[in-house]
Structure formats: C-alpha cells, structure tokens
Design a protein that fits this description.
Elements: E1 15-16, E2 33-36, H1 44-53, E3 54-59, H2 63-68, E4 78-81, H3 96-106, H4 110-126, H5 128-141, E5 148-152, H6 159-171, H7 175-183, H8 185-188, H9 190-201, H10 208-219, H11 223-237, H12 240-248, H13 252-262
Parallel strand pairs: 2-5, 3-4, 3-5
Antiparallel strand pairs: 1-2
Length: 264
C-alpha cells in the first residue's frame, strides 16, 4: 500500500486512499480522496501541486491551531475549516499550550500517556461535536466533486486517521486493511516525530529513559488507538454499520452514491 504516498517538498504524511481494496473485489478510485498533515509551510511547488490535485481542503484543526499556523491560499481550492475537537487536547491538537502541557504531564509517564491516547480515541467515537462535524464532510463527499478532496489536521494522524477509517468503512474496505493504512502514518511522520522526540528528550530536566517511550506514544499511531475507537463506536451503536447509520447518516442510498463516486 506504500505506492499511494504523495510526495512534496515540505509537506509530510500525504497519501491517496486510491487503490485500497474493498471486500467485493473493487478498489478506491485514485486521486479523489486524499489524507494529510498540516499544509502550513508548503513550498510554492507544493501549493502548485495541490492546486492541480484537489478542489477542496478540509482543515480538522482547532481554531487555536488554525490561528497559529493558517492554511495557505491554494489557487482554485476551497478551504473549509471544520474543527473536530472543541478544546485543546494533548497529543492530538497541536497548539503551543497543548504541546507544553503534554510534555510536562506525560513526558515521564508512558503508561499514562498510552491510556490517555486510548481514551482520546474513545472520545472521538462518542463526542456529539466531533461526530456532527465528521457527518458534515460525509454528506459533502456524497455529492460529485470535480477534483479530489483533502482532509488534514496537524500530523495527519488522529483526526485525519479516524475520518479516513470512516470513509474506508463506508466504501467496504476490510478492517485489517484500514488498520494497516492507519499505521502507515508512523512511516509518513517518522523523521519529524523522531526529531521532535530527540529534541525534547535531550532537555536537562528530562528522564530520557522514560521520556522517549512516552513521547513516541503521544506522537505516534498505535493499533490500540484505532481499535479503541472501533470498540467504543460498536459498543455505543451495536456494530459499526449502526455507527455509520446513526452517527454519520449513512443509509443504503448514501453507500450506493459513495460506491458510484469512489469505487472502480
């Protein structure tokens, strides 16, 4: 599945859902559904490339993240700010305050950091605000769009990863493929994550032996995270089809529209 990476000069962790297989033997159409990390910092060449690929860029970040690092204007592309979190969330949103709090509280507590991230993913399956925001994009994707759609957060890991899983489930991608695709973020963000981990762990007031595992837990993608989302969604709605139907408004007609638009 690694041939779906989209390379840029400055942007990382971008890939196309196109090519992923479905349970009925079809595949997702390339170039229509793109997931990624922060657009802020894109080079002129990156912006030109995005302009040719997408017609809609959906930003899942909080208002604070957006203000700190706004998305650039991309010719011919609509920017849609659609925050999934209402508040600062350590390890997920990346405002300066969130990062500082996460470093100080979790930096020497890997077990607590892991539990916190699992609980965060459970929250993403239960939050009325998060679900209503994601439902808006599901509804938008059910309408024909001339070019591709990009959704992103800061790292392209948590909020972006969960929405990718929702879209893949609607299209009938097998669960094991969805989980594998989610974990590819660790490859896409490897260099940035390692640089950040080593920078923080080198502080004189930090216990490196404890901080490195804790930071990797906070900044990485773990199988336990996405399975926690699935587990909570299925507990709340009976099964994932129930989650899609009740939380996302995905009925048979909408599934058929998704199939017509995004499967070959």
């Amino acid at each position: 599945m690694t041939d779906r990476w989209i390379t840029f000069e400055k942007l990382v962790n971008y890939r196309d859902l196109g090519g992923l297989p479905t349970k009925d033997g079809r595949r997702i159409v390339p170039g229509k559904l793109i997931r990624g990390g922060n657009i802020n910092g894109a080079s002129d060449a990156d912006i030109e490339k995005l302009s040719g690929m997408i017609g809609l860029a959906v930003d899942f970040r909080t208002e604070g993240e957006l203000l700190e690092k706004p998305d650039p204007e991309i010719p011919g592309v609509e920017n849609w700010h659609l925050p999934v979190l209402e508040t600062i969330t350590e390890g997920v949103s990346r405002e300066k305050d969130a990062d500082r709090h996460s470093f100080e509280y979790f930096i020497d507590k890997p077990d607590i950091a892991l539990n916190y991230m699992v609980k965060t993913y459970e929250h993403l399956a239960l939050s009325a605000f998060a679900l209503s925001q994601q439902k808006k994009l599901v509804e938008r994707l059910a309408e024909p769009l001339e070019k591709g759609v990009l959704w992103h957060c800061t790292a392209g890991k948590d909020r972006t990863g969960i929405f990718a899983a929702i879209v893949e489930e609607i299209l009938g991608v097998p669960r094991e493929v969805i989980v594998t695709d989610y974990l590819l973020t660790n490859i896409g963000n490897a260099e940035v994550t390692e640089r950040l981990v080593q920078m923080i762990a080198s502080r004189s007031d930090v216990d490196r032996e404890k901080s490195v595992p804790a930071l990797r837990i906070m900044f990485g993608a773990e199988k336990e995270y996405i399975l926690a989302f699935y587990r909570e969604a299925e507990r709340q709605y009976g099964d994932f089809d129930g989650f899609l139907r009740e939380a996302m408004g995905v009925d048979r007609e909408m599934r058929e529209r998704f199939s017509e638009l995004y499967l070959i």
